Amino acid sequence: MLIDGTAIAAEVRAEVASGVETFRQRRGRVPVLRVVLLGDNPASQSYVRAKKRAAEEVGIDAETLLKPADMSQSAMLALLAELNEAPNVDGILVQLPLPDHIDEGAIIRALDPAKDVDGFHPENVGKLVLGDDTLEPCTPAGIVEMLKRSNVETSGAHAVVVGRSNIVGKPMASLLLRRGLDCTVTVCHSRTRNLAEITRQADILVAAIGRAEFVTADMVREGATVIDVGINRVEDLTRERGYRLVGDVDFEAVREKAAAITPVPGGVGPMTIAMLLANTLTAAQRRTA
Ligand code: GUN
After folding, report:
1. Where, in this chain's numbering, is NADP(+) bound (predicted)?
2. Residue 89's domain spans which residues?
3. How far does the centroid of ligand 1 lie from the alpha carbon of residue 13, in Å?
4. Domain stops at, among 113, 148, 167
């Protein structure tokens, strides 16, 4: 089975659009999202454009604040303070990665946790681990929605997460472990010994390594559910833009063994954006409750 992220994301977006309309009728305004992007990284620019367009499609007021790559950290902190204070701003997203001269941790800690629609602030990360209500990081939250809406059995399943980033791997592990999902969770990374031996035990395998087609068929158990978080550009001169997108999974080989698998593109990516919209609506509802 192919898990169609585009179709599931469309369902989530329709639900958010209806929530935004109810919010508008009750509050007399729409949720407001501000996206901050430093510099001109082409991948970041394309993600930010997609986020803004998707937000507008569900009726969220979205603006991108494009800043030069050499913006100072203090200027950036001043901008965030302004957005934190602005009564009409519900959600703030700082697109990562940031240029090297900026301390990413300091920027994330400067966000008002109530407006942190990425769920990266330590307060929100703490709540996630405790199982409290919070704004959940969009990519892992989107994966949970995909698993639920595709009726993948999670209770007691062995979930193996490959990758330990703060954006995907760590919050993914916390969510899968939670009451309600109830997975047995193993987290692997670049230093893991006998990686293939561990991934072959996975009922649910989440690949978030950031290396093109890293997960090969011999690493996957027959009948597993495979979630591919990777978005890697590989050179392809037959394409007009000169590259194609591939995941962290060798899709054509692994699909023969997996019971269910997400494609790239059209898998996790659209879900990440849909969950950002859901988080923006949630932030607006909680701020005005
Ligand atoms: N860069 C890659 N993924 C993400 C994400 O989910 N949020 C932000 N802000 N930046 C990212």
Report:
1. 163-165, 231
2. 28-113
3. 19
4. 113
From the CA of 81, how far away is ligand 1's center (Å)? 20
What residues line ligand 1, using a CB cutoff of 6 Å? 93-96, 118, 138-139, 167, 272
If asked whether residues 154 and 82 sit together in one domain, one would say no
Whether residue 231 lies inside any domain: the answer is: yes
Q: What are the pLDDT tens digits along the chain (289 aa)? A: 999 999 999 999 999 999 999 999 999 999 999 999 999 999 999 999 999 999 999 999 999 999 999 999 999 999 999 999 999 999 999 999 999 999 999 999 999 999 999 999 999 999 999 999 999 999 999 999 999 999 999 999 999 999 999 999 999 999 999 999 999 999 999 999 999 999 999 999 999 999 999 999 999 999 999 999 999 999 999 999 999 999 999 999 999 999 999 999 999 999 999 999 999 999 999 999 8
Quote the pTM value. 0.97
- CA-closest candidate to residue 34, choices 79, 74, 98, 78: 79
Residue from 94, 98, 118 whose mutation best tests the ligand 1 pocket (most atoms within 8 A of CB): 118
- Position in ligand 1 atom list of the atom nearest CA 93: 9
Q: Whose CA is nearest to atom 1 of ligand 1?
A: 96
Nearest to 201 by CA among 170, 162, 147, 174: 162
